[in-house]
């Protein structure tokens, strides 16, 4: 009878699996076409491997080497000592718990598993504290890698706001887990682990010369980084690829007679059926309030972070190319990415190693809430800091109305002339109000370099000398959404005074679907200045892909 029951359950399990499998891929194949679906699956995975995974692996190798150096020469223990005073009042944890946060920040969540098995470490914890230590320390998983990755894209400041958001998420998750544990097992409040000596918690290698300690730390840390980079590959290639196919839409293959985009499935990378954005759009107001998300495709990042933050990072280049991320988004992504950091796949194993598998459901609930709080905290912290920044805005010292228009490389106008306003501030910066025709609220904030070229201050990202600035954040379809400026040498110039002057810079105007609408020189002139000579940037450099 037992054998029959086992076989019946296995058959039912196989049937359910086949139903789910064919539902997922049948839906994709019926909409995209089976050949296109298979080609997109392979090409997206290949593109992620080449463009994202190897880049992430380079970061993990370098950060792994740095982390090993910090461990070898006692910097980690010093950081632990500095953080100890926060542990008891904020987290209700012993001071030594801070060591776990530093370790996961430098590497990943599994780093704490060896600590919890060390009696020299665990002797300081009551039982409920040791269990909730998983929630506390795992909220900083891959933190260094996340911050380095975001910083490399020009978002160092936003990623640090995200780190503080992860701290708040860690506090929420830890305290909630302790509440759940003590409510169900009050006896855990008095039980202590035993034995051990804190002085024996050491990460130093055997006695060697300084040169060998440095060399071995770099090589061993780099090797650990390679292992972590390899561990990221399945998540990025499998999870990210599938989520992208449910997030993005078909490719643009041309335009019709009226200028509208023609969309079709070609089997190219990053195509999909846009299911997740449609579902998220039903409660888009909630995501906008919680996280400040203005594009429903952004919800893909938190979803993937549930299983792997490394895989979630693979989405960032595509979001950036689509012009849908800004500093607020990066702050939220950093907070959620660090706090969740694939907890669905790691927390179960960590609790199982501690012998408390029965509390896994409580742990997952607490950490889910913690991650949501982390993202929300990062968003509102960013809003608050931005608001404070506007309250201490430099003093306006001058304002000039003038003519604005765009021309092609030969100087032929490609737009009509319209009026904009240039404002000058006492710190030497400028703001051009309503710079793009018919789009109220479109601004360019810039400073002038010593060579009279422009530096764009309000770009939401920069790539290889190109500055991305939102024109109309509410734009849909083929309407103007963002501009890419190239203010490099010869392609931008500012000259003039309060009475008369001009500036120009090369601009590419794009739609929400990253369709190039127009390109050319953007001009603003007040008074009657001379007309400067124009130079056109190289077309290959000017692409946004």
Automatic annotation (TrEMBL):
The organism's taxonomic lineage, starting at the top: Bacteria, Pseudomonadati, Bacteroidota, Bacteroidia, Bacteroidales
Per UniProt, the keywords (alphabetical) are: Membrane, Transmembrane, Transmembrane helix
Q: Write down the species.
A: Phocaeicola sartorii
The membrane spanning regions, by residue number, are 14-34, 46-66, 127-149, 155-173, 228-248, 298-316, 323-344, 364-392
UniProt protein name: Nucleoside transporter/FeoB GTPase Gate domain-containing protein
**Keyword Membrane part of the UniProt annotation:** yes
